[in-house]
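Re: export button greyed out
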Amino acid sequence: MIVAEQKPLEEIKSLIADYQNVLVVGCGTCVTVCFAGGEKEAGILASSLRMATKLDGNTKQVDHLVVQRQCEWEYIDPIKEQVDKADIVLSIGCGIGVQALVERFPDAIVVPGLNTTFLGLPTEQGIWEERCAACGECILGLTGGICPIARCAKQLLNGPCGGSQNGMCEINPDTPCAWQLIYDKLESQGRLELIMEIFPSKDWSNSRDGGPRKITREDLRLAAEETE
Amino acid sequence: MMNDRENAFHIVAYCCHYCAYAAADLAGVLRLRYPAEIKIVELPCTGRIDAREILLTLEHGADGVMIAGCLEGDCHFQDGNINARRRIERLKQTLSEIGMDPGRIEMYNLSSAQGNRFAEVATEMTERIIELGPSPFRTMVRIEDAVESNP
Amino acid sequence: MTEKNTNGLKSGSNLERILREGHFAVTGELGPPQSADGAVIREKAELLKGYCDAANITDNQTAIVRMSSIGAGAIVQQEGLEPIIQMTCRDRNRLAIQSDILGAYALGTRNVLCLTGDHQSFGNHPTAKNVHDLDSVHLIQMVVKMRDEACFDCGDEMKGVEPRFFVGAAANPFGDPFEWRPYRLAKKVKAGADFIQTQLIYNTERFAEYMQKVRELGLHEQVYILAGIGPLKSPGMARYMRDQVPGLDVPNKWVDRMTEATKGIDKDDKKARRDAWRQEGISIAVDLIKELRQVEGVAGVHVMAIEWEEAVKPIVDGAGLLPRPELSPLPPSDPKKKAS
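Workaround output, generated via the alternate export path:
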């Protein structure tokens, strides 16, 4: 899932400073599960902003609502009326949600209330960890199911570097060394031969380096849209 | 002690059914005095408390909020009071960001047998809030109106 | 591929010739300044010249911005000391690395050390974006390919002179997982590394264990391994390296020796204490070299005395490695003889 966290209130206040009617739009999917932009967080943020702006002597009208998925047209179309009424939309969806609102409501001013942080999972209640870098060319099948692109600080394909100590990464003693994990996994499965050979350099053109990516599935497209 | 309604301080005390609520009851039975500013709301457990609820309470003009749960280790639902403590800690940070004194909210722990203790913390909280002064939001909405508009 | 005039050597660098002729090699290290002052480089080069066969020129070491290793290396070259250009994958992508390799060669440098690079979070620009387009193993492959196949990483043939470097790599025998380290070295050897410089070695027993495995894999016969030596400056530094630096293994006996070095010296006599520590640090380094020289497969030592270049001479001298061999100028190369 996409993991995000709320921006500092001070930054959010500066983003909405010039507008009177604010609509906070949460999202019911990833950011709800990571407690950054769901119903509860939208309510807290709206309440916080009402109080904070009043204390600043510049009371704003702040309403909130939550759509089930901010990244799909059919879920955001129904909020058109509220968006039209607001002077500014404060999206607490991920970066995709923010941009979906921007694209669907061309006249609306939309700003983000979250920092979209990474693709990861809750390893335990209250803790989220990065797992995927969306590099466009998955190598998990060759690395024991542990991603060195997302989890090694230097994205090494032939690791670990000299900074791996007691299973931890030198840049942060709380971060496991991805290559120690890979080694341990493959060793325990008797599959170390997978990393004995030099892992070739990566084709980054499949990643963000190749420019914004797009997938088209002709079999799924609707006839009406295809002719557009 | 009571001023006129407009000038009175209002402190909402969210009390766990299994301890603080019963302690408040006991305080009454023991004829212990605690400030009339304290307005008790019964909760099944402090673990039930939601940051939104406390924020709305403050937004609607309460001068302070106290949350009173069981002694740590004695939660009827195992660790609802510990969850509440963590949430209150975070909420205090939010209050600071908003620009409000985080001292307007406080969590207390006590057992159902501690009628004395309830009266003590209620007095302590009230004194603290009176010192902090009326909530900046008090003039915005009268609590009675807020209750009517947010049943 | 066209036949090249190589005198049967890969690069013809002094370091390559010293190693090929079977001498126990000594390399040093020179850290460029955090300024554009070329005079600093010349002074440091003077301290190393004659006491090592070549000197590493660090590349934004510990991710702190310094004069470029190629720029500083060219100055060192002018001063008559042979540079080993360090090149990290942290700051450049494959385009930048290749163009730098071409430039470094054109400036007359002949050795390159391929590194991943310290993470930028340790340096003075922690908000920088790191590159890591390639890792150190890919970097070795690329520089070797430029030399041996005269082509770029993409496969395009080079038009004109190809850069002929003696290619080095680093190895940390004490990083984890310990059992994997010899295999990681094997990858670097397979990638084409000609020489290896190791991380600082203080635990000779553990290093011997590592070398045992290296010999089992036959790596010592495919690559020249130079053991890393670093003189300790004080007991505090020894403790810091023992406790705080990931990938270093400093046994207590050295810490104790450093501590005891000031026995009988007045606590307030700071200069005498400092001198005693430094003397002991040099003495420990000499002992380490003597011990490491006995390990089969160790072809030389790499003495890292960053910001203490003066220590190199007494260390190398104390280890009986002076004078350094003076090689005769290379004969005109035989065009029929191919590089091996």
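Chain B has a mean pLDDT of 90. The button fix ships in the next patch.
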